[in-house]
Amino acid sequence: MNKTFPVTESTISALHLSRWLQEKYQLSARTVCSLFRTGMNHLYLVTDGERKFVLRIYTYQWRSRMEIAEELRLLLHLRQHDIPVSYPIADQQGELIQELHAPEGIRYGVLFSFAEGKKNPKFSAQTSYQIGVALAKLHRATENFSLERITYSSKTLLQDSLHPISAFFSGTEEMKFVERLSHYLFQEYAQVNTKQIRQGAVHLDIWFDNMHVYDEDRITLFDFDFCGNGWQCHDIAYFIFQLFNTHPEEEYQTKKDRFLQGYASITPITEEEKRIIPITGLGVMLFYLGIQCDRFDTWSNIFLNEDHLKRFTGMLKRWITHHQLAVE
What does the alpha-carbon distance between residue 262 and residue 246 come to, in Å, rounded to a whole number? Predict the structure, then answer.
């Protein structure tokens, strides 16, 4: 007997999206939509002559309509404060969020402006300075700005992340290390002087893959999918952690210094925020390891295995050694 099985994730036809976009957003008949990449969400590059856009289609049940609306509210708030971000485009009815009827159910879509420039993993020290400037301006605009989304606390970053990680890697030596690290970090977070920590809306995924650079000095930030509430120094620490793991030591130190100088040229970083950069960098990384495990159906098993965990914990241990942290 023939049976039609339900699906957990589909890839919507770019050709049909092209026709839909023309109608929904009054784009011209020459509009072309092409799949850019799948993953946590599906991204499509949309071109209409000289105009470019990015269409994000959120994976099924990944973000609620409210969560997406809050992400877009943040982006519009930043745009009003002249922060260079990729912002949402309204359709001809004034709607920012679209509902698409996919085989697995309702999926949401948003059309974004295209960020001028391109990604550059080997950006210059001058660009690192400008990234610091851009992030500081973002934080100045979002300090004490709250979202109806997740709050990144020691519980959400450290304790909640352990559950999906343990489901994949329980019993291994690397998993035992992750558990010890989580416990150590939880204790360190509890000792932070929060009166000296700025709080507000955070991006939480600031690195070269989520920004375009134009002429070294112009930075446009995008992909606020993980935005939420929390300590703003998490953004600073995460960017520095990514620098540490993508650059040789001397180059890392130069770009780190320039990044911090650029940031401080706009708004000061407190001494307590500087002190906990090694701690908060690890906190965000454990959170993302938990996301990788929790979203296994999206990421698949191409890399999510014990070898990946060994590489991941090796990266964490290098950071721990560099900062001389007393993780037992």
Answer: 20
- Mean pLDDT score of the chain, rounded to an integer? 95
CA–CA distances in Å: residue 21 to residues 40, 150, 184, 217:
22, 31, 50, 33
Q: Work out the end-to-end distance of the chain between its first and last CA atoms, rounded to an integer number of angstroms.
A: 59
Environment class of 285 (CB within 10 Å of its CB; exposed 0-12, middle 13-18, buried 19+): buried
Assign 139 a pLDDT band (cuts: 50, 70, 90).
Answer: very high
Two tokens, residue 258: 């320039």
pLDDT at 183: 97
Burial class (CB in 10 A: 0-12, 13-18, 19+), 127: buried
Q: Where are the beta strands (DSSP E) in the chain?
A: 32-37, 41-48, 51-58, 88-89, 98-102, 105-113, 151-152, 199-202, 211-214, 218-221, 228-231
Convert the pLDDT of each residue in 282-314 to its tens digit: 999 999 999 999 988 776 566 788 888 999 999
Residues facing residue 41 across a β-bridge: 58
Coil, strand or helix: which one is 202? strand
